[in-house]
Amino acid sequence: MRVLGVDPGLTRCGIGVVDGAPGRPLELVHVEVVATPADSEVGARLLAQADALSSAMARFAPDVVAVERVFSQHNVRTVMGTAQVAGLAIVAATRAGVPVALHTPSEVKAAVTGSGVAGKTQVGAMVTRLLRLAEPPRPADAADALALAICQVWRGSAQQRLRTALGARA
Q: For strand 2-7 and strand 64-68, is the pairing parallel, antiparallel, or unpaired?
């Protein structure tokens, strides 16, 4: 299974692609952070992020796209930009005919580190270990995008089987 993980952000959007299956070694395919200048117009920034996401969909042909579920933060400006870019990722995947999975930050942390309250350093260290990298992906947005992809590889198929089983009972 190929998963494209998106850590959405208006200033920095992490895009990570991982191949893998539950019980098998994971493989890093690609990772990047798309940065936009804070002093640019919001429309230009969103367009740059949308273009990068669409390009990644076309280039890597994922089986599923995992996007961080936006949650309430104290800084409304930050959460607005994050939500806007998350929406762009969902639209890009849907246009490409690729299913979308949303994962909360605590769900991703728990999947990768075993603790839903793990810090960025712990997530980066586990992503490094799981993907057998020489050093942690930088900046943290890169590691977070890869962690989202890993979470989907490990948990996504189980979640789909549960949905299918529950649907069969209804």
A: parallel
Both tokens of residue 12?
């920095």
**Residue 135, C-beta contacts closer than 8 angstroms, at least 6 positions apart:** 128
- How far is it, in rounded angstroms, from Cα 88 to Cα 91? 5
Residues recognised as catalytic = 7, 68, 141
Q: How far apart are CA 137 and CA 19, in angstroms?
A: 17
- 143-167 pLDDT, tens digit each: 999 999 999 999 886 555 555 556 6
Q: In what order do the strands lie in the sheet with 64-68?
A: 27-35, 12-19, 2-7, 64-68, 100-103
Overall fold of domain 2-169: Nucleotidyltransferase; domain 5 (3.30.420)
pLDDT in tens, 105-143: 999 999 999 988 898 999 999 999 999 999 999 999 999
Instruction: Give the contacts of 48 (CB within 8 A, at least 6 positions apart).
Output: 34, 36
> What does pTM read for this prediction?
0.90
User: Taking the CA of residue 140 as centre, how many other CA atoms within 13 Å lie in the half-sphere pointing to its CB?
Assistant: 7
